[in-house]
Design brief:
Elements lengths: L7 E3 L5 H18 L12 E3 L12 H14 L8 H13 L29
Parallel strand pairs: 1-2
Length: 124
């Protein structure tokens, strides 16, 4: 709301157009509840759907590599459904040069490492 901070969401389920509308609708309802209806423009919602793979909850090679990389380098566990694909998207965007070297980038880890147990064979 009234910020120049850019937010990029990595979708784990929907195509970009569907997900952007869902996120914008939620942002609008939230803004209305706190007394600032219309504070989030539709073009402020940016979605990258290239990391969905075969669908929601379906592992991808990029997700597996991302989860392993963060676990190996930082000891941080990511779940394979949400944050794993989200981090794969972040790494992919970095590799593509989407961010400048001096950009401040924040990755929001929402938890869910317990989900790894349901995907044991994916990581063996």
């Amino acid at each position: 709301m009234n910020s120049d901070i850019q937010v990029l969401g990595v979708s784990v389920r929907q195509k970009e157009d569907v997900q952007a509308k869902l996120v914008h609708d939620l942002a609008e309802r939230t803004a209305a509840k706190i007394g600032v209806p219309g504070a989030v423009s539709a073009d402020a919602v940016r979605v990258d759907d290239r990391w969905v793979g075969g669908g929601y909850g379906v592992p991808t090679d990029a997700m597996v590599a991302a989860v392993r990389r963060l676990a190996d380098t930082e000891g941080i566990l990511l779940d394979p459904v949400y944050t794993g694909k989200g981090f794969a998207g972040l790494l992919g965007n970095i590799a593509e040069g989407r961010f400048e070297p001096d950009d401040n980038v924040v990755f929001l880890h929402t938890g869910g490492s317990a989900g790894l147990f349901g995907y044991r064979s994916t990581f063996e």
